[in-house]
# Entry
Amino acid sequence: MSTVLDQIEYKVRNGIRLTREDGIALFQSNDLARIGALADEVRKKMTGDDVYFNVNRHVNLTNICTSLCKFCAFGCEKDSKKAYAMTKEDAIALAERSVKDPALREFHIVSAMHPEWPFEYYLDILRTFRDQFPQIHRKAFTGVEIQHFAKISGKSIKEVLIELKEAGLQSMPGGGAEILCDRIRNLLCPNKATADEWLEVHRQAHKMGIKTNTSMLYGHIETIEERVDHMLRLRELQDETGGFRNFIPFPFQPNNTALEDTITRTTVWDDLRTIAISRLMLDNFKYIKAYWVMLTLPVAQLALGFGANDLDGTVSEERIMHAADVKSSKSLSSDNLVEAIRQAGRIPVERDSEYNVVQRY
Ligand code: V47
# Structure
């Protein structure tokens, strides 16, 4: 008699889409090795042994935030000791220092929702980056920030995106998705975009030709069913638009957050099965990112055997996760990433933000 895993294996190998029940069964199974091997098989069929990374710089303009999500250690109020807000000159100076590295290809611009900055400020930063550093790709603003811009400017999401695109926006990062379920959002982050609003921002962006990343923040108060439903909502939108570039599972880092006394860090096993299950459920996503900053480099390397095929990037000066005390370093060199990928038995490929190959090692 065949087991649920036998049936899932059969479906995956024969191109039959997995259902919600399959996703839940995968999360309920203890057979991590078998799930991982299946995800690895799918990864190999999709992109062979190539594992991607890019050379990028994070720019977090401010941590002063109107949202103050319970899972976040980065955002704070204006009078907090750790509050900071970059002027345009600060941001330019940071960018000027960063472009001294000739290998730099991407600015990853994600910030908090400042209570006073107008939409025009963000447009101004984008235009300036575009004009002064035209060769560096601008991946900027999560769906939650875009929704915030619409709110503070009185414009529609579409109008905001049109203006951002005109000012130099080239793609969008995947943050702000958290768990796409209003039960969770009402408990953890009631002051920002709802699940439908976040999806609508990405839908509109895709329709305009702006590709976006996506993510899932897991390992806090969500249920397994909510993780699966989250993946299904993304899979559905991807069917509709094809505009998602990759999927990034973020394991919740509780330190310095409002949840630190009640929730412990996810286990390595949960991290690996979540990567593997996302590879199996998200059959219309080419790239699954093992974000080493949160997973730690050794676990990210292991994830390359569980369905992941992207390690994100060199990530210089990451602040959001480091506010939650993650133990990984603030950045890695390309050499570090190449070595880590090789140690995992894979082929390191430096990519640009659009997944064009820069160099295959
Ligand atoms: O939306 C915040 C997550 C996101 C915590 O697209 C946390 O390539 C875990 O957008 N524990 C922001 N996760 C970061 C982001 C991002 C980062 C790296 C790559 C990309 C990409 C996008 O970080 C937030 C939230 O989901 N987050 N706090 C925490 N304590």
Notes: The CA atoms of residues 221 and 238 lie 26 Å apart. The pocket of V47 is lined by residues 71-73, 110, 142, 173-176, 178, 213, 215, 217, 248, 250, 252-253, 257, 291, 312, 320, 324 (CB under 6 Å).
